[in-house]
Amino acid sequence: MFVDEATIYLRSGKGGNGCVSFRREKFVAAGGPDGGDGGRGGDIVMLAVSDVNTLSDFKFKRRFIAQNGQDGAGNKCFGKKGEDLVIRVPVGTVIREAESGLVIVDMAEEGQREVILSGGKGGKGNQHYATSTMQIPQYAQQGQEGLELTVRMDLKVLADVGLLGYPNAGKSTFLAHVSNARPKIADYPFTTLSPQLGVVEMSYGKTLVIADIPGLIDGAAEGVGLGHEFLKHLERTRVLIHLVDAAGVDGRDPVEDIIHINEELAKYSDSLAALPQVIGANKVDLPDAELFMEEIEEYCQENGLKLFKISAATGEGLRPLLDEVVRIRDHQDPAPVVFEREYFDQNEAQEQEPFTIVKTSAHEFEISGPAIDKMLGYTNLESEKGFDFFQKFMHKRGIIAKLEEMHVEEGDTIDVAGISFEYYR
Fold this sequence. Notes:
- The protein has about 425 residues and is an alpha/beta fold.
- It contains ten helices and 18 strands.
- It is about 20% helix and about 25% strand.
């Protein structure tokens, strides 16, 4: 089954907790702290592979959770790192944040490996908190929680050339004649229900990868007739071969077909409408082809389009058309079309804006923010060492400086995540 879109939930592993432990050995009267660190949580990793060409594996399995890191143990034993969860996706898969649709990464190259979510850091054991004044620390750091994200995956085929046209324009026959592809061919609309790729071996050593896009209909840009699902596969191509039924077998007007499909391309994307395009007037081996040919030639001349009279069934005119497509392709930027990253993890934004301070009354201030919550999650404020860390955190993050800018006075109440302190310099 060909599936080119899927939405899945991802969560990286939680970091293991640090351990509170002390040496307990014979003849050691007062063993020091020896609590080990927790292991880091497993990452969520995407890997682009060429031996998979569909997203059907994600049709039923939609939750992917990496392994948690192990907790630390006594005798300075560190917890084991959680195993990374590697998710194999077809080359050409674009990973987007589900709600906003912003691009996280484009898996455009074979073997490309991208960490989508990093595992939580392991917590430090109590061995790290021993000082000359605090020789028996009774606390350790908790492991950080894993990150979670819902993503949408869109598979966009990798091809040099996009083959498009109305149903029964002869695209499948064309692809079967010029390449190694063997698409289903029959005389009824929508024979092709998924993109077909074919490789054309030219006699002078060059190759073309052609994608046969399922027949488009009016309204495709708005999603009519699965239009969005089909049009997106043209976004990486460099040249378009636009086939029309020159014989008007289904009672269609070939020129009107060209106009309508180009309108759908323009509605969907300016970049698609701007792609170089050649017109293949197909089925010229049929008697009625001459009835429309003059009209097609006139339209192409007026609009600067290269026209080739062809028969996909007999092979007539195919070589000159392919030669022209190779020439156009070779004059395009050789770099593959890659979608740039648009989405950035909220945790990165938190580093830029880690806290907010609100003056709730003349002598009361309230401090909040993700960085504050995270810090309090692994800090024991009831211990001397923990409270000292808390004070240093407030200075390092610029929170104290911001309070002073807001004219905080000694004795004012500072509320931090529901915990109240009196301010003293």
